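Researcher: Following up on the earlier apo prediction. This time include the ligand. It's glutamine, with the SMILES given after the sequence.
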Amino acid sequence: MKAVLALADGKFFYGKALGAIGEVTGEVVFNTSMTGYQEILTDPSYHGEIVTMTYPQIGNYGINPEDVESDRPFLSGFVVKESCSFPSNFRSQMSLDAYLKDHNIVSIEGIDTRALVRHIRTVGAQTGIISSVDTDPESLVKKAQQAPALVGRDLVQEVTCKQPYQAEEGLWTLGSGYARANTQDAVYKVVAYDFGIKRNILRNLTALGCDVTVVPATTTAEEVQALKPDGVFLSNGPGDPEPLLYAQENIRKLLGKVPVFGICLGHQLLAIASGGSTYKLKFGHRGGNQPVLDYQRQQVEITSQNHGFAVDEKSLHDQVKVTHINLNDNTVEGIELLSSPAFSVQYHPEASPGPHDAHYLFERFIDMMNQHKRENNHA
Ligand SMILES: NC(=O)CC[C@H](N)C(=O)O
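Model: Understood. Below is the ligand-bound prediction.
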């Protein structure tokens, strides 16, 4: 069945319907990871986005129930050059097409994804539409122009949990699957703000001895403090960090009282809460091979990334130190506060999918909690 992808600037591509039949709008972005499509589909940070995979064949190792970062796909739409309809992997239980249909994700295949990505790189990420019900490019371009843009919207409220819960999964091993978190012997009590949290962050924290309570995005600083955490974690999540005033306010109140660690959206919110600002990148960083320099260790790490906004270095005051930069475009990749125990990174130390070079950051959070505990016991 025919499908069309159209962009707000008038560019369009004819392709074939994949997944659900229907029509969907979102910001059209691209991800350069060669594998890890299940983790990408289920990363809540992609909510509101139509994700194009640059790798030419997607779905070749099928879909299994384990490689997920949340309980369902959150992205608006999915674009691939070729979707593999005969997956080959001992863990596979269904095809990509069947999975996208099951979760009602309107997708398209068979378009020239290289041409699309080159266009996005030239003109910048923008709103687009995939449709298999209306295939008139002119009408679709109009609909794309009328669709809400990503900037200025609070998408976090659409993906955050409704109620607090305890993280129960540990790390995955072949043959045994996910370990169960050993909360009884946990040494650190962590409260994790769920702005759209990826499960592998929680798995990494529980594996290092944290008992993690995940709380909804609007939980107040007072409610968090009532749980007496040793540390607070600020998660990744979708959309623009600037309109999330409630989160910025709560983080501001927690700073100096408890160690804070943020990833991606959590990093952007920490920067804003400490006086900085963010801006939209031309087409973002999404993929598994972004080089980052850690000033402190004087080491380059290859990182997993997924973001369209970035912290403005010029907006940061002298109590905020830039700890990491992206070696492709020199954008801010990590910060540390000098006045309170808090740090954050723009990229994904939990990988899933991607390289594991940055795992040391979870250990840094543990060290920070240890030091804070020691100092408080002496006080
Ligand atoms: N993965 C994330 O947390 C993304 C953060 C934010 N939504 C951005 O696009 O920049």
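Model: The first strand starts at residue 2 and ends at 7.
Researcher: Noted. I'll compare it with the apo version next.
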